[in-house]
Amino acid sequence: MRQLWSALVTVTAASLTAAVMLVPARPAAADPPATTLAEAAHRTGRHFGVGVSGHKLADPVYAGIVDREFDGLTPENELKLDATEPLQGRFTFAAGDRVVDHAESRGQRVRGQTLLWHAAQPSWLVNLRGAALRQAMLDHVTQVVAHYRGRVAAWDVVGEAFADGTSGARRDSNFQRTGDDWIEAAFRAARAADPDAKLCYNDYNVENWSHAKTQAVHRMVRDFRSRGVPIDCVGLQSHFTAYHPVPADFAATLRAFADLGVDVELTELDIEGSGAAQADAYRRAVRACLEVSGCTGITVWGVRDSDSWRSSGTPLLFDSTGARKPAYTAVLDTLNRFPATRHVPVR
Ligand code: XIL
Q1: Active site residue 69
Q2: Confidence of residue 15 (pLDDT cuts 50, 70, 90)
Q3: Known catalytic residue: 268?
Q4: Which of 205, 214, 251, 276 could form a disulfide with 291 if both were Cys (CB 3.0 to 4.6 A apart)?
């Protein structure tokens, strides 16, 4: 009997293996591989965006890549505090509007960043304290989100509010000194100004699950979710280098956040390096997102290496001439493989 049973198991296992192997990797004729990042990501139910500088959209090579490859734009600097409110109560949206108009005219989604950030602050704001500062922060959030109501799909409401290192503490900043509740107050103001915008907390060095900063952000998001503070997503900036590589537990980190009921996004992905090593690192980063159903989008932080905020590290998908790098091919291929992987019968 036991022999019969084990024979049956063997036969069943063999036929299952055969069945899985018979599933075509991709029904080639009906569904050829996508040829752009946006199309390939779209088929996985995700966005693929890019950080842009508005003034570069006049460069046809730059704009050509942006419009061919990406379905989302994040203005790299045009929506930051110093750009949108250079003088208190005097808002300037021309630079931001330029990027948002461009995106709208091409059906691209806009991520706005960053409403409250310790950096890129105008001097009037740096000089405020206490209740006056708190009010100014909230007024800023309200005015900027209201201006873009219905046009900016997702906002990084607060960015980089936690300290590096092992403390897990908040970063010291003028905002933080107005009281621990500044972050939740900002999220509530943003929700009131545009109830349909997706509201995110965004940070760097939160990709390794074991890092104190990752755990601290996770605790905050759990607390916000339990108390009904309106947070919808966590952005992991994902700036990688040889010394801060794509961690082996990246997918686990993404899943841990997604398990709190928020979406996660790779918001500023760039990986220093070149050639096959860089391509492989990109492959692993994209795969981590694809492994987590709550990972709804990837944004790379710039178009060509020469556009990057850290161009010496050549961290992007296109070289300075606008040619596709091995990293590009790796990302496209990884995205293209995903639907086939998904459609293999799950046991
Ligand atoms: C960077 C921009 O890319 C640069 O052009 C600018 O000089 C400095 O800021 N984390 C963030 C982004 O959230 O806003 C930063 O963008 C990169 C680090």
Answers
A1: no
A2: very low
A3: yes
A4: 251
